[in-house]
Amino acid sequence: MQTLTLEGYLAADPSILSAQGSGKKRASFRVLETTRFRKADGTPGERTTGFNCICFNEATTERYIEAFARKGSRVVIQGHVENDTWTGKDGVEHYDLRLIVGDIRLKNRRARPSADDSPAERQVQEPASGYDLNDDIPF
User: Fold this and answer.
1) How far apart (Å, rounded) are the C-alpha atoms in residues 32 and 30?
2) Which pLDDT belongs to residue 120?
């Protein structure tokens, strides 16, 4: 089995799907990783690679991916690579590699704002102590 550790950014909001019959949730998403390099003539270059990822762990899907992951989130994923093969409507056989998520770390984890949150509720609350954090430190 090939193990891969990948660090990158989510290309779009994850797709949360429920399996037919069992109803178990799984997450499907794409991670983009950019490599920067210098060409032979000294000019900078970069190459972005996209990785299709799928998480079958229902607890991880519900507690972390569905709750916190969204487009642009920075993630570190560890998992194994599998071949995906399918036949299109035109009869042509297609091949793809996908990363089956074993472990995921969200680097900038913030709760997804709900529809009933008002902008005033999302603002940072001032401390109740009465101190202004912008005042000079007294020592």
Assistant:
1) 7
2) 46
